[in-house]
Design a protein that fits this description.
One of its GO terms (cellular component) is dystrophin-associated glycoprotein complex. It is found in: Membrane. Pfam families: CD20 (PF04103). There is one protein chain. This protein is mainly alpha-helical. The chain has a domain at about 25-120 and about 155-195. Helices cover about 75% and strands about 5% of the residues. It is built from 5 helices and 3 strands. It has a 3-stranded antiparallel β-sheet with strand order 1-2-3, with helices on one face. β1 (about 130-135) and β2 (about 135-140) form a beta hairpin. α2 (about 10-50) runs antiparallel to α3 and α3 runs antiparallel to α4 (about 90-125). The protein is elongated, with a radius of gyration of 26 Å.
């Protein structure tokens, strides 16, 4: 009853409670949905890249980054099933928020690594000179150098189609992983701000306003 009277007497308190409820319960829905869609896209595209040639390295087919982002999104959906209580009074709620924050940070690192690996491979592909030899695509950075490294792509009947398709997949991987990294970064920022920044602002400014009111009365 006292809480209801406070919320009725003070409309700002009611607005603050609604904003905390919205930020604590509804915000994971948008981010978790984006993470799930992006994670599935990155994972499927990574397995498609692995099917092009059996000689592609794991770092060049970053389905692992998509799987991590999918796991993060599932934790975000679990958060929606937990009833919100202010000031994190439940251990389960605090634990889920901490796990979601840490996994989002891990997803951010994984997506950044995936962008770096795919960007490096794409830059190499733009400088390759490739020839099809016995159902393998052999590419070199410098034809004039007899000791130069040769990159071999197995199971490639047509070298031109393989390089063009692989370039397209690498560009898509860079774009999707970059967006996934930004979404994970936004999750970490929102959760950090909701947990700490709002708390410190309240502690700093409320005593100052109270002191100013006493000075005005004097």
């Amino acid at each position: 009853k006292q809480q209801q009277q406070k919320s009725k007497g003070d409309p700002k308190a009611g607005q603050e409670e609604e904003s905390h409820t919205c930020c604590g319960c509804r915000f994971p829905l948008l981010f978790a949905s984006l993470q799930l869609a992006l994670g599935i896209s990155v994972t499927v595209l990574g397995f498609l890249m692995a099917g092009i040639s059996s000689s592609l390295l794991v770092r060049d087919t970053p389905y692992w980054a998509g799987i991590i982002v999918c796991v993060v999104s599932l934790v975000g959906f679990v958060m929606l099933c937990i009833s919100y209580q202010p000031d994190e009074k439940t251990c389960v709620q605090f634990t889920m928020k901490l796990i979601y924050f840490l996994l989002s940070a891990l997803g951010l690192v994984a997506c950044v690594l995936a962008v770096a690996f795919t960007a490096h491979h794409y830059l190499q592909m733009t400088k390759f000179t490739c020839d099809t030899i016995l159902e393998t695509c052999q590419c070199k950075l410098d034809i004039a150098d007899p000791l130069g490294r040769t990159f071999i792509y197995q199971d490639a009947a047509d070298c031109d189609s393989l390089t063009s398709m692989l370039n397209l997949y690498l560009l898509l991987q860079m774009a999707l992983n970059l967006i996934s990294a930004l979404v994970c970064l936004a999750v970490c920022f929102v959760m950090w701000k909701h947990r700490y920044q709002v708390f410190y602002v309240g502690v700093r400014f409320h005593p100052l306003t109270a002191a100013e009111g006493q000075q005005q009365k004097v």
